[in-house]
Write a structure and sequence with these properties.
This protein is 23% helix and 27% strand. By secondary structure, it is an alpha+beta fold. The protein has one domain: CNF1/YfiH-like putative cysteine hydrolases. The protein has a six-stranded mixed β-sheet with strand order 4-5-8-7-9-12. The chain has a five-stranded mixed β-sheet with strand order 1-2-13-6-3, with no helix packed on it. The chain has a two-stranded antiparallel sheet with strand order 10-11. The two termini are 26 Å apart. The structure holds zinc ion (ZN).
Length: 258
């Protein structure tokens, strides 16, 4: 169910964090989505996706209604959850059309769905803020990561821990030369070459550069692994019709310590 998972307990007045990256094992979806597909928009059966989401929520000690997903657009819009803005009806909140989701609430988990794109999780443990970001090639070029950092700064964030999850590696991400040049002009670290030496884009390296270039104090952890080369993760480039795995982040408030 998880390829990576960590829980950092609250200390003093610092928030804890529970964050994870799922894999494709331990779910109810059948081929070609087998088995822990968390996306409802990829042709999988609704009941299988629902079962999988319930399992994920249960693992985090939440209800499925406490999972906050996005209607991901490959853009750079940032949405604050209803619990963060104070809007009513938080638990029935529809998935906003956005590629970054920000919360200041410990009662919900943010979920970003991927199958080659870069999942980025951000947390400010002093201020009690978290974000989940979906950064593919368009999101990298549109600046979704800087947009998420700006939204967090606007809410008072200063020091962030960032987790960059597995994604398609540049060796496996051949693109036309003009696309690589366009990416390199905006984010030089994104220029790369494929296994056969042709132009390629390193989206994750570009995302890491955007995090490093921020004037916020960001500590980056970058998980290894290429989705196209790892059978335990979903890869759209490899399989076409397939599922989505997730990056998930939840704040833990100091008062929640037993
Ligand atoms: Zn690869």
């Amino acid at each position: 169910m998880f390829t990576w998972r960590e829980r950092l307990e609250p200390t003093g007045d610092r928030f804890g964090v529970e964050w994870a990256v799922t894999d494709r094992h331990g779910g109810s979806s059948l081929e070609p989505w087998s088995s822990f597909n968390l996306a409802a928009h990829v042709g999988d059966r609704e009941d299988a996706v629902s079962t999988n989401r319930h399992r994920l929520a249960h693992e985090l000690g939440l209800r499925v209604a406490d999972l906050r997903l996005m209607d991901q657009q490959h853009g750079c819009d940032v949405a604050l959850t209803d619990a963060t803005t104070g809007a009513a009806g938080a638990s029935g909140m529809p998935a906003p059309a956005a590629d970054a989701l920000v919360t200041g609430s410990t009662e919900e988990a943010l979920v970003v769905l991927v199958a080659d794109c870069v999942p980025v999780l951000l947390v400010d443990r002093a201020e009690g803020l978290a974000a989940a970001v979906h950064a593919g090639r368009p999101g990298l070029l549109a600046g979704v990561v800087p947009a998420a950092l700006q939204a967090l700064r606007d809410l008072g964030a200063r020091r962030l821990d960032a987790l960059v999850g597995p994604s398609v590696c540049p060796r496996c991400y051949e693109v036309p030369g003009d696309l690589r040049d366009q990416a390199a002009a905006l984010v030089p670290a994104a220029a790369s070459v494929s296994w056969s030496g042709t132009p390629a884009i390193d989206v994750a390296a570009g995302v890491v550069q955007q995090l490093a270039d921020s004037d916020l104090d960001v500590t980056v952890r970058w998980l290894p692994g290429c989705t196209r080369e790892r059978e335990d993760l979903y890869s759209y480039r490899r399989d076409g019709t397939t599922g989505r795995f997730a990056g998930v982040v939840r704040l833990v408030s100091p008062e929640q310590v037993a």
